[in-house]
Design goal:
Layout: E1 3-7, H1 11-23, E2 27-31, H2 34-43, E3 48-52, H3 60-69, E4 76-80, H4 85-93, E5 98-101, H5 106-122, E6 127-130, E7 133-136, E8 141-144, E9 147-149, H6 153-164, H7 172-179, H8 190-203, E10 211-214, E11 218-221
Parallel strand pairs: 1-2, 1-3, 3-4, 4-5
Antiparallel strand pairs: 6-7, 7-8, 8-9, 10-11
Domain Response regulatory: 3-117
DNA-binding region: 125-223
GO molecular function, one term: transcription cis-regulatory region binding
């Protein structure tokens, strides 16, 4: 199931979009202001972000620029009643992948979301490399130094989330919410157990460690520094 972040302050518009996407089997999180939207974009992995331009607290231009400055590559589709060429160019220059003017038909919105998903796959987003580690998200395979590493389904889910957020420190609660979808007791040590499983397979046989612990903060997958 694809997960979408909708940042839209108009209640009727957000409800219309959310209902339509859920009918198409998407999972949708809604934020009604720019600050909350940016926070969610940082905390969770989304397949597409739908971002309105005119928002309270922080406008869509600011949110888009901030998300891209943090090297989050999630496709962004901007929505706005501002439909001049200058507005569209501004959004694209700030890092948006597409721009749709209001009012719009849901069918067109849905088509653009699907196109963004195809474009992300075509541009190689589904193969992530960290040092000598290769994570193929489409084939669900992992290699390090060219050698195949066999992971369980849950181990792969954890590695995928770490890889999609490489270089970013992820808290234990972020991992619980995004990998296990909060189906586990927050007091459980399941995160620590599975991080250890991954380390035994991905790091232990090799000289350079890629999964690092940031004390008091969480875990990060990167190719420099120590655990």
């Amino acid at each position: 199931m694809s997960r979408i972040l909708l940042i839209e302050d108009e209640i009727n518009v957000s409800a219309f979009i959310k209902r339509g996407l859920e009918e198409q089997s998407y999972q949708v999180d809604v934020a009604y202001d720019g600050v909350t939207g940016k926070s969610l974009a940082l905390q969770k992995h989304y397949d597409v972000i739908i971002l309105d331009v005119i928002l309270p607290n922080a406008n869509g231009w600011e949110v888009c620029k901030s998300i891209r400055s943090l090297r989050i590559t999630t496709p962004i589709l901007m929505l706005s009643a501002l439909g001049t060429t200058e507005d569209k160019v501004k959004g694209l220059d700030l890092g948006a992948d597409d721009y749709l003017t209001k009012p719009f038909k849901f069918k067109e919105l849905h088509a653009r979301i699907k196109a963004l998903g195809r474009r992300r796959y075509a541009t190689g987003e589904e193969l992530i490399t960290v040092d000598s580690l290769e994570v193929d998200l489409a084939a669900k395979t992992v290699r390090r130094e060219g050698r195949r590493i066999v992971l369980t389904s849950q181990e792969f889910k954890l590695l995928e989330y770490l890889a999609r957020n490489k270089g970013r420190v992820l808290s234990r609660m972020q991992l619980l919410e995004n990998v296990w979808e909060m189906n586990f007791d927050p007091g459980s040590n399941v995160v620590e157990v599975y991080v250890n499983y991954l380390r035994n397979k991905i790091d232990k046989p090799y000289e350079a460690r890629l999964i690092h612990t940031v004390i008091g903060m969480g875990y990060v997958l990167k190719d420099t520094g120590g655990a």
